[in-house]
User: What shape does this take?
Amino acid sequence: MKFSDVIGQKELKHHLVSMVEQKRVSHAMLFLGPEGSGGLSLGVAFAQYMLCEKVNTGTTPSLFEAGPTKSPTDSCGQCPSCIKAAGFVHPDIHFSFPVISKKNDRPPVSSDFIKEWREFLKEQPYGNNYDWLQFIDAENKQGNISSNEVADINRKMSFKSFEGAYKILIMWMPEFLGNQGNKLLKLIEEPPPDTIFILVAENENLILPTILSRTHLIKLRPLHNIEIEAALELQKGTQAARAEQLAAISNGNFREAIQQLEHADDDWDKLLREWMNSILKTGPGAQIKWIEEIAKAGREKQKQFLRYFNHLIELAIRQKIIPSSEEMNTRENDFAVRLSKLCEIEQLEAINTELDNAAYYIERNANGKILFHALTIRLYYIISNKSVILIH
Assistant: This one.
């Protein structure tokens, strides 16, 4: 994977190239960014860049100058090292990630899932931990980075590099390291020569403080809408208008945009109007029927539905602050206008908070039926002081 394959993050790419050029690469780095910002893709691209044979020659052809010049701004993608790195089979790039127990009794390590991991990286480079666990058919099992994995890392990184200038470990989701992560401290503090650790994380608060304090922070920002739009058009062939809409919903999260694209056939608008009418008009019987329906959907669909509602809440708040004089000719805008008439800004913000909380608990395997029942009650109390019907 080249830097050019990573969406956005232009400033960070320049910074990483400069670190290599000035020979100031830290031996332990933490790529920290929100879901869908590209931390894993950037980490993999950086590893390929550091091992690229063109980058490591120290020289590039010049028409007017002799001797060393600036490092290339990207890996060449053509040398043997780049070809292996792009296929995730370079012997000097090692991966560590959350895994689950297999049927045998032996404690699992990342190497047991390396074939699946390579396929996952090719298919879902912006996927999250939920996507990975679904990819390996984990069902309700929770992933983990165990003490056996830490021991395997210590063993692998004690070897000399096979063919590259460095040997590199990319650890995805160090949040899943328990106290056993402290067994990595000596290796991180006193690594063998030319050893690089790249940790890729989403939640700084879940990382062991002892690990956090020993890494150089590389902080990714959420993606800009225009970057997501361009990526959807180029990578997925999405029409410009649809790409713009998905970028607005995704809040800087490319994975979210992809999920919304894949669930394009789901009628979120109809489902949402039915829910609101059950809360405001048709009562408990309709609510129970609706909750039964949404509970049958998978966690990912439930979360996408809540994200869609969040998007409409944002449109409604915008409508409250700056009322649009233009004709609202889409069902989304129609719903947002009706919602802005129904609720004050404080109510809209309260609903937004409840939706965020619900999405958080869905990610953590909450029972869908119980969660949406409680959420229905909360929304009723937030908006029950008014009764505008939201459906035609």
